[in-house]
Design a protein that fits this description.
This protein is α/β, with parallel strands linked by helices and 339 residues long. 45% of the residues lie in helices and 9% in strands. The protein has 14 helices and 8 strands. Helix 9 links the parallel strand 4 and strand 5. The longest helix is centred in the middle third of the chain and has 18 residues. The protein binds zinc ion (2 copies). One zinc ion binds next to loops. InterPro entries: DNA_pol_lamdba_lyase_dom_sf, PHP_dom, PHP_phosphatase, Pol/His_phosphatase_N, Pol/histidinol_Pase-like, PolX_PHP.
Length: 339
């Protein structure tokens, strides 16, 4: 539970954005609150207080009625708007799922503004910390995904410098470096080996030619899983529930390759993905795979979506000791460095 006493207007607006994120409300209203947050951050606090006192907040470009209400309530020590929103957007979880959630110590797949995420690295890290995590793995997209502003080699290097600075500020919380690297059509990866080798954790995912024929898709995925740099196979079927079918591949061959090469299978928690599907997850458990339960968050509130994956893991009986983000950051790094 979040205690809502003595929050500043910035904190209150951040919490509104968090709640709208976790409810997957990505429309105009959320964008308006994000804009209001930017405005309040860049306006002197005295001016905000003065305008609140005189009822002129909405004269500021980017502040609408709802955001003005949130700001005024925060300044008055009230939280009616936020309380209602907190209740309405709470992410549900079963008691069995909660047992898995309590075991998690980090999140191995999330995006920042460096690619197609909506929040800064720092905001993602601070939110993960507030959710009880010890670490995150930062996995922005690789260059091939131009629509998502994927990172070229020089931007990966620049991001590594940023993470060093952030880690000094946020310690003992840790941001582990990483990438969600595209698995290209021939199974090669969308970043140089020497770059991949510098990153703490590499998630590899298929984002293109998802309807490739069964045999070629199998070869493509097995080749990626075999890469010594790949630690986690991201959202393996590529399905979007109700919108896009699963890719077709030889499940046993791909998961056996994951076991042989110590590549974890991601349990992607996004509600529209929940990938792998139940029967496939059962097979991965039976074959002895390791797993990550990862939010694939593109916004701060979406970090709470790990709850969906925890419920699914509990339902199918994923052995907790095989979930790599129940381990400490050091144990996780020791494991990724073994291959
Ligand atoms: Zn992806
Ligand atoms: Zn992703």
């Amino acid at each position: 539970m979040v205690t809502l006493t003595c929050v500043t207007p910035v904190e209150a607006l951040e919490r509104v954005v968090h709640c709208l994120d976790r409810a997957n409300e990505i429309g105009f209203k959320t964008k308006a609150f994000v804009r209001a947050l930017d405005v309040v951050r860049s306006t002197p606090a005295e001016q905000i207080a003065d305008r609140a006192a005189h009822g002129t907040l909405t004269e500021l470009d980017g502040i609408g009625e709802s955001s003005a209400t949130v700001i005024m309530q925060a300044l008055a020590g009230e939280s009616a708007y936020l309380d209602t929103l907190e209740q309405r957007t709470r992410v549900p979880i079963t008691p069995d799922g909660q047992r898995y959630r309590d075991a998690l110590r980090g999140d191995c797949h999330l995006h920042s503004r460096w690619s197609d995420g909506g929040a800064t690295i720092e905001a993602m890290a601070r939110t993960a910390h507030s959710l009880g995590h010890d670490y995150i793995v930062l996995t922005d997209h690789s260059a091939r995904l131009t629509i998502a502003h994927g990172l070229q080699r020089d931007r990966v290097l620049a991001q590594l410098d940023d993470v060093v600075v952030l880690n000094q500020r946020l310690a003992p919380f840790r941001i582990l470096t990483g990438i969600e690297v595209d698995i290209l059509e021939d199974g090669s990866l969308d970043l140089d080996d020497d770059m991949l080798g510098q990153l703490d954790v590499v998630v590899a995912s298929v984002h293109s030619k998802l309807r490739m024929d069964h045999d070629r898709m199998t070869e493509r995925m097995v080749a990626a899983v075999r890469s010594p740099h790949v630690d986690i196979l991201g959202h393996c079927t590529g399905r979007l529930i109700g919108k896009r079918p699963e890719s077709s591949f030889d499940i046993d061959r791909v998961f056996a390759a994951c076991v042989d090469n110590r590549t974890a299978v991601e349990l992607n928690c996004r509600p529209e993905r929940l990938d792998p599907p139940r029967a496939m997850l059962d097979r991965a458990i039976a074959l002895g795979c390791h797993f990550s339960i990862s939010s694939d968050a593109h916004a701060i509130g979406q970090l709470e979506w790990q709850l969906f994956g925890c419920d699914r893991a509990a339902e199918r009986g994923v052995p907790i000791e095989r979930i790599i983000n129940t381990w400490s950051a050091d144990d996780l790094l020791a494991w990724t460095h073994t291959h």
